[in-house]
Every structure is written in C-alpha cells, then in structure tokens.
Amino acid sequence: MKESYILRNIICLLSILFFLSVLFYSCRKETDDLDINQLVAVWKLHKFTDKNDNNLVPPDIRISFTENNCVTVFTSCNYGQGKFYQNGNNITINELALTDRKFDLDNDNKFVNNLSGSYSVTGDTLRILSINDFDIELLRTQITDIYQCDMSTQLIDKIDINRYYSKDIFQPEYSAIHGKWFLSLEYGGWSGGAEAPRFDFLEIKKNGIYGICKGFRLVEFGKIEATNLTEEKLLLNFIPSYHSGDNRWFVGSARLTFPVNDSLTLVDNCLDCYHYRFYRIE
Asked: Which domains does the chain have, with CATH numbers?
C-alpha cells in the first residue's frame, strides 16, 4: 500500500514537471521568435519612459516596418529611413538618420536612438525594451499605405495625367522639377504673417500635376500654372482640386530658380512668408 502511494506521488510529480517544461518551452519559444509579420504596420508613439518609469511627453512620431526589413520614421518635423535586423525577439536598427529640421530634433533623435532592443507585440500594442536609456510603447494605426524602401513612388500617380493639360507645361530645360521632394527645411514667417508648413513631401509630375503628402496620405493635389519671370526663374501657382481639412496645406504661389538638380527651393510669393527647401527622393 505504501509503495503504491509513493508510486502515485512520483507519477504525479513527473506529470507536473512535464507540464511545466512544456509551458516553459512554449513561453520561451514565443519570446525568442518574434513574428515579423506582426511588425508590418504603421505605429504611433504612445509612451516614452526612462528606466525609472518616468514618463516623457511623447512627441508626434509614426514608424513603419516592412517585410523587406525597411523602417521609416516620420516625426512632426523630420523624416528618416533605415534597415532593421532580427535575432529572436531582438531588433537592431541600422543606418537610420533623420533630417535636421531643428524643431524638436533632440526628442526625435532620442526616439531613433532607442529603437534597438527587445520587441514584443500584444494585440495592437508594440513594446520596445531598449538597450539604451528609454523604453517605448506604440499603438498600431489604421494606416494601410505602408511606405516601402523605394520612397520614389508617387501617391499622385493614381491621378489621370491628362486631368488638367494634354501635355507637359514645363519645357525640357525645366523637366528636372518632376519627381518626389522631401521638405527638409523651411525658414521665414518671422512676423507671424504666414503659417508654417505641416507636410512632408511635394510631388510633381508631368502635365502640371502636384500633390502634397503628410506622412502616408495625399492631403492636397491640383494643377500648376507656370509663368516665366526670367530665363532662370519661374512663378508657379498651385491651384488645388482637393485638400483635406479646412485650410490649404501649401502656398498659393512661389518663385522657383533653376537649375534644380537634387535640391529645390521655393520662395513664397509674399513679404515675409516661408521659403521651402526640398531634396529629391531617388
């Protein structure tokens, strides 16, 4: 009787140990192997805390991950792209540098510098235990237009090229203006007579079509009217067919000086308004 009792206890103990080992292995497996498909989305920064659990006011930042290991960051004023690499549940971010528009650049860089670490996804929440100073919590957004590493794709490509003109309005010597341009710097407006720009990209394609993009959305598009001021200077009027919200996202008119090459400067056509410096996205 006593031996039978001991045997039953041993069997029970072995069963418990087996169950715990299976549970431990499954939990360890879930922790070690982050499913990259869970990351493929656009995320918005929700919490930004130091290692003592002190909360910082989270800046307006969105980040996207793609299946081809591309990571894209949009802040309220800056933009950057790089690569990410996975090892278990650890993600390393490489070659990600932001543009240097100075407003809130310290917080923007602080976010980028803390992206490498241990990642976990629970439902629509992404948590990053950083290898550096701050931990990050992000929420999945409903945005479905995830930017790929080929940022040259234009959102205005879906607009009929003959919508406004049957041929291009720019002469061949001005054709370098076509393309996708990232807003890298703005200056002016010191007297407060104009509103600072709130967008990320200017897109221009043949037949006088322009588009304004905020992050992943086309927020304004319309036609361009061009007037020669001199041989090297044009006056461009941007006439919207659509803009989201109550106010326009871009200036009504601006002066453009050639040659353009890989940078583009538009001077707002009013006293003490904003000047815009763009860089071409290849």
From this structure: 36-140 (2.40.128.270), 155-280 (2.40.128)
Beta strands in the chain (DSSP E): 41-50, 55-56, 61-65, 70-75, 79-87, 90-94, 117-122, 125-130, 134-140, 179-188, 201-205, 209-214, 217-230, 233-243, 253-257, 263-268, 274-280
Contacts of 261 (CB under 8 A, 6+ apart): 176
Calpha distance 24→35 (Å, rounded): 19
- Which of 56-60, 137-141, 240-244 has the lowest average pLDDT? 56-60
> Token pair of 229, please?
């001021």
Lowest mean per-residue pLDDT among 5-9, 103-107, 275-279? 5-9
Mean pLDDT in residue range 97-119: 79
N- to C-terminal Cα distance for the chain? Answer: 82
What is the rounded CA–CA span in Å between residue 126 and residue 176? Answer: 41
**Best mean pLDDT range from 132-146, 178-192, 244-258:** 132-146
- Does the reported pTM lie above 0.90? no
DSSP state letters, 179-227: EEEEEEEEEE-TTS-SPPP--SEEEEETTTEEEEEETTEEEEEEEEEEE
How far is Cα 94 from Cα 110, in angstroms, rounded to an integer? 15
Which residue type, as a one-letter code, is found at position 94? N
Query: Residue 29's Cα: distance from chain center in Å?
Result: 31
Whether residue 59 is preceded by a cis peptide bond, meaning omega within 30 degrees of 0, is no
Spatial neighbors of 118 by CB under 8 A, at least 6 apart, are: 89, 90, 91, 128, 129
pLDDT of residue 25: 41
Q: Band the pLDDT of 120: cuts 50, 70, 90.
A: very high
Under a CB-based contact definition with an 8 Å cutoff, are residues 264 and 256 in contact? yes
Q: How big is the chain by its Cα radius of gyration, in Å?
A: 26
